[in-house]
Structure formats: C-alpha cells, structure tokens
Amino acid sequence: RFAARRTVAADTRAPEAVDVRIIAILGEQGGDDILPELYHRISAAKVRMPSLAERRDDIALLFTALVLQTCEDRGCPIPETGDLAHRLASRDWPGNVRELRNFAERICLGLEVDELDSIGTATLNERLDAYERRLIVEALMQTEGEVTRAAEDLGLPRKTFYNRLARLGIDPRALRER
Q1: What gap in Å lies between CA 112 and CA 110, rounded to an integer?
Q2: pTM tops 0.90, yes or no
Q3: C-alpha 129 chain-centroid distance
Q4: Residue 8 bridge partners (DSSP)
Q5: What are the pLDDT digits (tens) for 127-157?
C-alpha cells in the first residue's frame, strides 16, 4: 500500500505524502524470495554487483581497508600482514565481502593464524609468527587478558612476553573485552 500510494498515516492523522527510495539487496534468485507484487514495485532499477571472485583485483585494497576500519573500531594496533592482502586474491570467497570482513576482523584480533599458512606460500618466519601468535592469544584468552599470568603459563619473563606482544601486534585489552 505504501509503495503504491506513497503516503504514510501516522496514528489517526491524515496520510502524509512521502518521497522515499527503497534499496533492496536480493540474492541470485532475484525476486523469487519476495512477494511478486512487492518485487514489481521496487524493481525500477537493477544494479548487478559482481562477486569477489569476479573482481579479484579489488580484494587486496578492500581487505586493507577492512583491516584499518576494524582496528580503528576496536582500538587494536594494525597487524603486520606482509603480502597477505595480495595472496587473498587466490582464495575463493563464497561469502563475498561479508566473509572478507569477518576474516579481516579475526586477523586484527590475532585469531586467524591458521589461515595465514593456508593462503599462498607462507615463509618460515610467517609460520613461526603465526604459531607463536596462536599460543599467545590462547594463553591470554585462558587468563582473560591477564598478561602476567599468560606469560607465566608460557614460561616467559614478563618483559619478553611484552616484547612479543608488540612484535606480533597483539593487544591484550582487545582479548579482555571478549
């Protein structure tokens, strides 16, 4: 009714004219998921957004932007990702940008270390850093972000532990808030 008349009735007052645009995102089935009457009213203009698989050249730039945005939102230090952004183009992203955003968030929190090994060819140093990051993040999660206890659990002096946190870009505060 609203789409046909372009009016809205607020409580008992007379209907008021409104000027709105509706933007809807539909899956690959198009209008099969919604009522045909509604689909025909909102389908004035169609824009096809290619999947990430169709625009692999955009993945590195998009990933970098998502990492920066996530780190800013969460107050985390920006992690060192090396050439990871460029290696991501070789991966399929069935969940498209949403999946890439989730991956960027896990990278920022230091939780996606196994993925670093499976994308492209990771160097020995990248694999060692990923393994060390995973152990440190697990220790911090088990101690609810308490650095001293996590360092003790791993058998490291506190100063050494802090140095490794800085080198690996791990923020214990981000893990306390989880």
Answers
A1: 6
A2: no
A3: 21
A4: 16
A5: 788 788 888 988 888 888 899 999 999 999 9
Cβ–Cβ under 8 Å, residues 170 and 136: yes
Residue 59 contacts residue 52 (beta carbons within 8 Å) = yes
Dihedral, 8, 14, 18, 24 alpha carbons, nearest 10: 10
- Residue that is written with structure tokens 């800013």 in the block: 72
Where does the pLDDT of residue 160 fall: very low under 50, low under 70, confident under 90, or very high at 90 and above? Answer: very high
Domain segments of the chain: what residues? 2-42, 52-176
Residue 96 phi, psi (nearest 5): 55, -140
| Under 8 Å between Cβ of 164 and 132 | yes
Residue 43: other Cβ atoms inside 10 A:
13
For residues 58 and 66, the answer to whether their CB atoms sit within 8 Å is no
Say if CB 52 and CB 93 are below 8 A apart.
yes
Joined tokens for residue 10:
């607020």
Residue 121 pLDDT more than 70? no
